[in-house]
Write a structure and sequence with these properties.
The chain is mostly helical. It is built from 17 helices and no strands. The chain is globular and about 55 Å long. The model has no long low-confidence stretch (mean pLDDT about 95).
């Protein structure tokens, strides 16, 4: 498997960049609100094409590329722990310090964009440490518990669709708090946005994570899948695992189709309209999450198989620099996106059709990838990657090549 001079596995960087690109597409087309859109958010009307494009993004991208990104976080954890173990070191304590620093970076990102995922990763990451030496079957079993969303059932039984922190139900898009938040994004100053996201925004995000949506539990399940993929050496020995990946792809396709049929069955037989006040609605959204898992596996397996082809590797390696600087690019794309859309910047929130937002996201991904390639020709790390690494190790790391 091709490696960079720094011994990085190119396919992992390329997949991380590819996943980050999907995340950027979702965030930009959702206009970085990280909240339920109010009825009066859009000042313009989307065309039929825009509606179709939104449907395609929802079906093929939302929930899938975040999953890939999370899987790769679990894989990175394994690589760091394994590399340290081979040097005779215990990286556990250093890893805890590393994720504490990630939380600080994530919180700085949070005040720009309420949908920040770094703080969530940092809160979950310490729980990965006991799994590093666990047998693979047990890792998969625990991952399965989280991925079939057993915690969601517990949360729903206790809270229903209500908030754990006293906010209005997430089903009430036009509640007073949400309307005021959208207004802050549209008309508020940079300090107003910072203030809204620093406290209330963080609590609302945690509501989304631990409540009915259950993203918190799914994320940890994906972490464990990434850890397991590292332990079996999938990417380290990708060419040797081609036949295995082909079998996984077939199974993933079958699983995806079955999950979609189950989803359709639950929602077709559930009370209408869908307001998530019925257990059938809960089972339906759970089955839809299974379809997301299936499609994520399809995308992952397809990426690996395409990358194993000469032309495929040449094309997909385009994303490798973007992935090597994923932390810097993730934070920077949020700052750029919010500066274009929010009132403290250019103020285009609600004024651009989905197709324009989609094209803007493609342009941003392309420019960031090209800039990353140019940057890495002269520097060892992206700016935030260098800062994070230096702070983790407690000494200034070499920056220029």
């Amino acid at each position: 498997m091709q490696k960079t001079p720094s011994n990085r596995i190119v396919i992992i960087d390329a997949l991380r960049g590819f996943a980050l690109g999907g995340v950027a597409l979702v965030h930009m087309t959702e206009q970085y609100i990280a909240s339920a859109p109010t009825d009066n958010l859009m000042e313009i009307t989307n065309s039929t094409f825009d509606s179709i494009l939104s449907g395609v993004i929802t079906f093929f991208i939302i929930g899938k590329f975040f999953a890939l990104f999370s899987i790769l976080f679990g894989l990175s954890f394994f690589i760091q722990m394994d590399s340290a173990a081979k040097r005779g070191e215990n990286f556990g304590g250093r890893f805890l310090w590393r994720v504490f620093l990630l939380f600080i970076i994530g919180y700085a990102h949070q005040i720009f964009y309420k949908g920040d995922i770094l703080t969530i990763y940092a809160l979950l990451a310490p729980f990965l440490i006991p799994f590093y030496k666990m047998k693979n079957n047990w890792i998969l079993l625990v991952a399965g518990v989280f991925l079939i969303s057993i915690p969601r059932f517990i949360s729903y039984a206790i809270l229903g669709t209500e908030s754990a922190f006293g906010f209005p139900s997430f089903m009430d898009f036009n509640n007073e708090i949400n309307v005021a938040y959208i207004e802050t994004l549209k008309e508020g100053s940079l300090l107003d946005v910072f203030s809204a996201n620093a406290g209330q925004g963080m609590l609302q995000k945690m509501d989304f994570q631990i409540g009915f949506i259950a993203r918190f539990y799914l994320t940890f399940g994906y972490f464990l899948i990434g850890l397991w993929l590292g332990k079996i050496g999938l990417f380290q020995k990708a060419r040797e695992n081609i036949s295995k990946v082909k079998k996984w792809l077939i199974r993933a396709i079958i699983f995806f189709i079955i999950a979609l049929l189950i989803t359709a069955g639950f929602f077709a037989t559930s009370p209408q309209p869908v307001d998530f006040n019925s257990w059938l609605h809960v089972l339906g959204i759970n089955a839809y999450d299974w379809s997301n898992i299936g499609l994520t596996a399809i995308i992952l397996c397809s990426f690996i198989l395409i990358f194993m082809k000469r032309r495929g590797e040449k094309f997909l390696s385009f994303f490798a620099p973007y992935g090597r600087m994923a932390l810097t690019n993730y934070v920077l794309q949020s700052i750029i996106g919010t500066s274009i859309l929010f009132g403290w910047g250019l103020g285009y929130l609600g004024k651009l059709q989905t197709s324009y937002l989609f094209l803007m996201a493609i342009a941003l991904i392309t420019i960031q990838t090209l800039v990353s390639k140019l940057w890495l020709a002269h520097f060892r790390y992206g700016p935030l990657e260098w800062l994070w690494r230096s702070a983790t190790l407690g000494k200034i790391q070499p920056f220029k090549k």
